[in-house]
Amino acid sequence: MPNPYFHFKAFTIYQDACAMKVCTDSCLFGAWVADYLQQQQPNVKNILDIGTGTGLLALMLAQQLPALVGAVEIDEAAAVQAAGNFSASPWSARLQVSHCSIQDFAAASPTLYDFIISNPPFFENDLQSGQENRNLALHSKALRLNQLIGGIEQLLHPGGRFAVLIPFSRSAYFKAEAEKSGFYPFGEVRVRQTTGHGFFRSMLIFGKESAECITEDLAIKEGPGYTNGFRKLLTPYYLPF
Hints:
Blueprint lengths: L4 E3 L4 E3 L9 H17 L5 E5 L5 H9 L3 E6 L2 H12 L7 E5 L2 H7 L4 E6 L13 H7 L6 H11 E12 L3 H10 L3 E11 L4 E9 L6 E9 L2 E2 L1 H7 L7
Parallel strand pairs: 3-4, 3-6, 4-5, 6-7, 8-10
Antiparallel strand pairs: 1-2, 7-9, 8-9, 10-11
Helix pairs in contact: 1-2, 4-6
């Protein structure tokens, strides 16, 4: 049974009410995006996390940046738990979660965001489980990738950028869908579990400007321990580092 909480250096994630628990690749994604923003957009004013789940990504960005961080979550139990994780953090005044679909949020929001982050549902038309909340979190039943891109287009400030974490096998498809809305990748990290494994995740950053996409590779582990690249990104968060 998964641990009901996960301690980081500066905050704690309670996750017993959420279908999708804290996992290594989502931690890596949040750390990578925070590092990018610190280097490239340190004065970003507002950020939106689409499909926040436990609130992990929003909290990681709030730790490293002074921006206001909004979050959207369609599952009520997860939204309530994310709100609790936010209120217990040192940055509660800058964090807010909305319980609704991204389609409804985009239709009603008066705000345009400087940066949007999302770890979206991974699978479309795949075998689903009997747990409705897990289906919402894992499968694109309530949010297909082209709908995610449409919501981002409505909510992103002109000149803004967005980041997604997707299965490596779907990266080409997502890039093609994003290009239909005028978004182009300019940064991609292809992630593998170890130096001996194939790629299983892609971390991507998009913008409206067309530029050469800088592609890097990163392994989480090498031998019995974590790689230096992984350690460098996760040192601000992981207790053992």
